[in-house]
Amino acid sequence: MTAEGTLLRGVMRMRRFRFWVFGEWRDVVVDDRLPGRAARYDFTLPLLEKAFAKLHGSYAALRGASVADALQALSGGVVQSFSLRAQPRALTLRVLQTAVPRSTLLVAHGAGPSRGQAPGRAYVVAGLARVRGTTLLVRLRGPAGAPGRGAWAPDALGRGAWAPGSSEWSALGPHDRELLAPRTDSLDDFWMSFDEFAETFSQLELVHVGPDDWLLEPALQARRPWRAVLARRRWRPGYNAGGPPRCAETTGANPQFLVQIPASEGEGARKCHVVVSVTQQYEPGQRRLLAAWSRAAGAGRCGRARRRTSSYGLRALLREAGVTVSNKVLEALVLRFARDARLTHEAYVMALARLHVAHERFRSLDSRLKYNPVSLEEVGVAGRVSRPGGSPLTAVLLQMILMTIYS
């Protein structure tokens, strides 16, 4: 692709994307090899999806991703999810009035097809306006070239509620028309009444952009920036992993922060909004592993030992962690770490650690044995543990792995 994003026929190019992962931007490079159709050369979104899938390990890993996860990865901001159905409309209005003037991106989604929105489509809340003195309107922006369906959204000719030529537009005065006119020149932008907005959408995502990104984005320069502080901490069992508030004896050991809000000049008695976001660092596939272990062993209770899980599920747990083992190695793990066919959380972690050490030892032995012949004594020992027709060298390596696990 060129700098303008057009496709060069017969040329393979690389594209670089940046995603926000646990407090830092991570670069992902992908090639532009994608299936396409004739006369369709805009590959930006498919390449972005390809890079996002590479970041998480596979396309299948994206199935459980939420809109909030994608917004955080693309923007690097603090994402705050707000349920429109569970909150009173007065609170929703207060959230909109507070967030729109700031460097906060608002995304509404969750409407059904009967409301005029295509399934899975999200809309950006681009502004607010009050007409007729009492009618509050919400400005929405849909995906480029794909306006929504329904009475409130513009059609291919730009017609819709509160669009020029509509009955709502005809009832407006000159001042209100002037207020809405600069925002109706695009089919992707349209206005909706606040009451219908609260009924149409079920979820509102607030993306609070930090001061560093605010300086780099010209479109946000007219808005008030947020102040941001980033702190990295770690929970350690027996030291500062105190558990939830119900654990009265240990919850005070959790990491604590003192937040001091300085009195801003000219603020007076206005309230200050503080948003706290806690992000857990996960490696690719670790979320599925934790979910599988939670189902098998249950959650911990105020620092006490976790429940045990059946050792018969060890193969499935290892598979969730991205590890496949042979029957012989699995048998060795069960004999070494299971007690009465039960496996504790600590034993499972130790099994993974021993597998890692055994894998590293296997790699070193494999490269070393290529240049150092096996002695007759080692071949004799290997012959007693090898399978019929198996290689003595493979048996030696298997014996080394089993010794690592048993040690």
UniProtKB/TrEMBL annotation:
Residues 1-210 form the Calpain catalytic domain. PROSITE patterns: CALPAIN_CAT (PS50203). One of its GO terms (biological process) is proteolysis. GO terms for cellular component: cytoplasm. InterPro entries: Calpain_cysteine_protease (IPR022684), Calpain_domain_III (IPR022682), Calpain_III_sf (IPR036213), Papain-like_cys_pep_sf (IPR038765), Peptidase_C2_calpain_cat (IPR001300). GO terms for molecular function: calcium-dependent cysteine-type endopeptidase activity. It holds the Pfam family Peptidase_C2. Belongs to the peptidase C2 family. This is Calpain catalytic domain-containing protein.
